[in-house]
Write a structure and sequence with these properties.
With about 170 residues, this protein is α+β, with helices and mostly antiparallel strands. The chain has helices at about 10-25, 85-90, 115-120, 145-165, and strands spanning about 30-35, 40-45, 60-65, 70, 75-80, 95-100, 105-110, 130-135. It is built from 4 helices and 8 strands. The longest helix has 24 residues, at about 145-165.
Length: about 170
């Protein structure tokens, strides 16, 4: 028989969703999986203390792997992303989080994509090849505190937009 097979990559991809969703739900937020993958796998929606939905959302691109690549001192993960995804993420007004799930250790690391590239002087996407390697601190672990921080990043952007509208 030549049946379709569930590969290890399929299993760890599902585990990556499960891993981050648990923390999102514990923060009383919700997560919507995106069916068609064009660079965002999951949207996080936040709610106020009364349970009312808040404006905006947080985009998440999940990458699951059995083998993470660390720098020499073990303080950072090196991960390659396609520039086609990166171009879309950098144009997105709401925060985009790249989450790399290390399946063997059952831990996920995050990177706030727009903030990361804003911190690189003279970064020019047009000068990049088909992939760009990012460096993710191993201290940036996905947990409830991180998800709460994602919500704060979103709120900062909304505050800036509302400030611009009020002053216009």
């Amino acid at each position: 028989m030549n049946r379709k097979r569930r590969t290890r990559q399929h299993v760890i991809a599902d585990l990556s969703f499960n891993h981050i969703e648990r923390f999102i739900f514990r923060c009383t937020y919700s997560a919507e999986r995106i069916r068609s993958d064009y660079g965002i796998d999951l949207s996080i929606f936040t709610y106020d203390s009364n349970g009312a939905i808040e404006n905006g959302s947080i985009g998440v691109q999940l990458k699951a792997t059995d083998s993470i690549k660390l720098n020499k001192d073990g303080s950072e993960i090196h991960f390659s992303v396609e520039t086609s995804y990166l171009e879309s993420w950098l144009d997105e007004p709401m925060p985009v989080m790249l989450v790399v799930y290390a399946a063997k250790n059952d831990v996920a690391y995050w990177l706030y994509v727009q903030k990361y590239f804003e911190s690189i002087p003279a970064f020019d996407l047009a000068q990049m090849g088909s992939t760009v390697t990012v460096h993710i601190s191993i201290a940036d672990i996905v947990n409830e505190e991180a998800v709460t921080q994602f919500a704060a990043f979103k709120q900062t952007i909304l505050d800036q937009v509302q400030g611009v509208i009020r002053h216009a």
